[in-house]
Design a protein that fits this description.
CATH class of chain B: Alpha Beta
Number of domains of chain B: 1
Oligomer: heterodimer
Shape of chain A: elongated
Strand content of chain B: 5-15%
Largest sheet of chain B: 4 strands, parallel
CATH topology of chain B: Rossmann fold
Structural class of chain A: mainly alpha
Bound molecules: iron/sulfur cluster
Distance between the termini of chain B: 40 Å
Radius of gyration of chain A: 22 Å
Helix content of chain A: 40-55%
Order of helices and strands of chain A: HHHHHHHHHEHHEHHE
Number of domains of chain A: 2
Largest interface: A-B, 55 and 48 residues
Number of strands of chain A: 3
Strand content of chain A: under 5%
Number of strands of chain B: 5
Number of helices of chain B: 6
Strand order of the largest sheet of chain A: 2-1-3
Number of helices of chain A: 13
Structural class of chain B: alpha/beta
């Protein structure tokens, strides 16, 4: 993190830089309640009060490039104690969204691009998805009490559509079983879809509203096509 | 979205239990010390964003599965994040994430529980990852719906 002792950085200070944000960061009392509540405070020298100060000084470049907004988990503990209701975690998300997309750390952006192209984070083709799902269904059917168990895929008019977290399809197949067994036991009229089954919305994390909207629209499209009225989003 | 009904996992589980559509056997986890970790997004953040936090629903479901479970301290709105929120499992800043998670593990240890129930994939991945990293095979983490599925009473 570059410090403001750098004269060029002082030049760049601009207290009006973020005035259009709804967060009333100008009213920060520097009371430090947020820092006290933050479970990450201290790690990498971060604490939310410093973050708010940087926003109020308009240190855009430093903020956007810092690791801090990505180390914060947007847990909202700071928000819930802030006497001025500043909404710090929302500002963190805004700053994340201002980073160039190819500089989003780790696998988040790659995952989102994969979703856009293929419908899911894994880029898994439909046949492979169906294969995995049916394999798991067969295993469930072998358990006592679940004979004849099947997973209804793309069932028109089902009462409820359930989305799926990609990690359950990827490596944690066992964990697909729990909810499906409950559906079976409750005699629910449920379904999953073979195209846009992905329930994880990483746009929430990267500050990307467009990506979030795209995923929601796809789910709505399927619900329309299959005439399903209820959505269960267990993610 | 208003055209459609949406269920949270809590709504649906409570519905099945209250309508008698599933039956649960409380003896399956008898003798285990169980605790509940609440995800920021269902609790504090949901309350801040939508005006409603899911605090009591998961606790009620838990009570249908086990007789004796303990709260983490602090809890509900003041619950501490597991460190897996906000996509941190995927940013690659693992050292920071694990240090963050150590706080969660300490909190779980203080409760004396050896089984932690979570209703969130990120929390599950994070708590499991951190306890494996710290070498604590005696701590177990399960999904809330996994606990319910484990307690299902099936005919036959
Ligand atoms: S809790 Fe709010 S008012 Fe106090 S230092 Fe933090 S942001 Fe400022
Ligand atoms: S949202 Fe970020 S800054 Fe606020 S308490 Fe949580 S981790 Fe700390």
């Amino acid at each position: 993190m570059s410090r403001t002792s750098d004269p060029a950085a002082l030049e760049r200070l601009d207290i009006d830089r973020f005035v259009d944000w709804p967060a009333p960061y100008q009213y920060c009392l520097t009371c430090g309640l947020c820092a006290g509540a933050c479970p990450v405070a201290g790690i990498d020298d971060f604490d939310p009060r410093k973050f708010v100060r940087m926003v109020s000084m308009g240190m855009e470049e430093e903020l956007v490039e810092a690791r801090w907004p990505w180390i914060c988990t947007m847990c909202g503990r700071c928000d819930s104690v802030c006497p001025m209701e500043i909404g710090i975690s929302g500002m963190v998300r805004n700053i994340r969204g201002m980073r160039e997309r190819d500089k989003v750390p780790g696998g988040l952006q790659k995952g989102l691009e994969q979703v856009e192209k293929t419908g899911n984070v894994l880029g898994l083709p439909k046949e492979d998805f169906i294969f995995i799902v049916e394999d798991v269904a067969e295993e469930i059917a072998e358990e006592p009490g679940f004979s004849g168990f099947k997973v209804p895929i793309d069932k028109e008019g089902a009462f409820i559509l359930s989305t799926i977290h990609n990690k359950l399809i990827n490596t944690q197949n066992e964990d697909l079983k729990h909810l499906w067994k409950i559906f079976y036991a409750a005699k629910e009229d449920w379904t999953i879809t073979s195209d846009y089954w992905e329930g994880v919305n990483w746009g929430l994390f990267t500050g990307d509203d467009r990506a979030m909207r795209m995923m929601v629209e796809r789910i709505i499209l399927q619900m329309d096509t299959l005439k399903i009225e209820n959505l269960l989003w267990p993610e | 979205m208003e055209r459609f009904g949406t269920f949270t996992i809590f709504d649906i589980l409570i519905k099945y239990i209250k309508e008698g559509r599933i039956r649960l056997d409380k003896s399956r986890y008898a003798g285990r010390r169980v605790t509940y970790h609440e995800p920021c997004n269902y609790a504090r953040k949901s309350e801040a964003t939508f005006g409603y936090g899911y605090y009591e629903e998961p606790r009620w479901i838990l009570s249908q599965c086990v007789d004796d479970w303990v709260e983490l301290q602090p809890n509900r709105r003041d619950q501490i994040c597991c460190g897996g929120g906000g996509g941190t499992l995927l940013t690659g800043y693992n050292e920071e994430r694990i240090r963050y998670g150590e706080r969660k593990i300490r909190q779980i240890r203080q409760s004396g529980a050896d089984l932690t129930i979570v209703p969130c994939h990120s929390c599950h991945g994070q708590i499991k990852g951190v306890k494996d990293e710290l070498g604590m095979p005696d701590l177990e983490v399960k999904y809330l719906w996994e606990l319910v599925a484990d307690c299902l009473v099936m005919e036959e």
